[in-house]
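ok so for the tutorial part 2 we go from a plain amino acid sequence to predicted structure tokens. step 1 is just haveing the sequence, like this:
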Amino acid sequence: MTYCVGLRLRRGLMFMSDTRTNAGVDNISSFRKMYTWERPGDRIITLLSAGNLATTQTVVSMLEERHKTTEERDPDIYEVPSMFKAAKLVGDTVRSVIREIADGGGFKSEASFGATFILGGQIAGGETRMYLIYPEGNFIEATDDNPFFQIGEHKYGKPILVRAYDPDMSFEEAAKLLIVSFDSTLKSNLSVGLPLDIQTYVSNSLERGAERRLMASDPYYQEISEGWSEALREAFQRLPNYEGLYKSNS
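step 2 — the prediction. this is what the tokens look like for a chain of 250 residues:
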């Protein structure tokens, strides 16, 4: 399992992903789940992945190879004219990869090879946009009514996003929000794990923004994790007790 978030802000986009792919008593692996294609001044496209590792890595590899191999450059993620076309390219690639793996493995169902993606960025001449791409290859776009996407193990980290998200928040505030969301998930599910990758994109800059990898030993991560736990305990204690649990005999 995994946990990835793409956040749409007035200032641009923010992405965060964990790196755990397998969890068990003695079997824990880490792989990067954030990929970026960049041509400064022309385009910046970031992809987050969740799901079957073979599927996600094959999708990324095919997108890379189509650019590197002359005879396979159509379509090419470095040449698509819009973010919509980029989302369609990724969707078509996902659908093709899942079918190919399923057929080759002799399985009747393609569900075992499912993968979901968040795609965001900007191409010169277009707006900053972000999409959620499903295993079937179809996709939806982030809007003011649906300003963030989560993939993977998202249920533990969603409440903080719903309650505290503000489209006008700074990247620094958004990073704090996402770290709290991820910390809540990490404490609830072994299949999501550190380190965490963070990336920002400033709208119309057409170049990669700030990037950082948070390790368990990172002082800021530890401060936020401990501070949020303490803040929750204090908030809980301030709430009134339920006095109506037992009825009075008088």
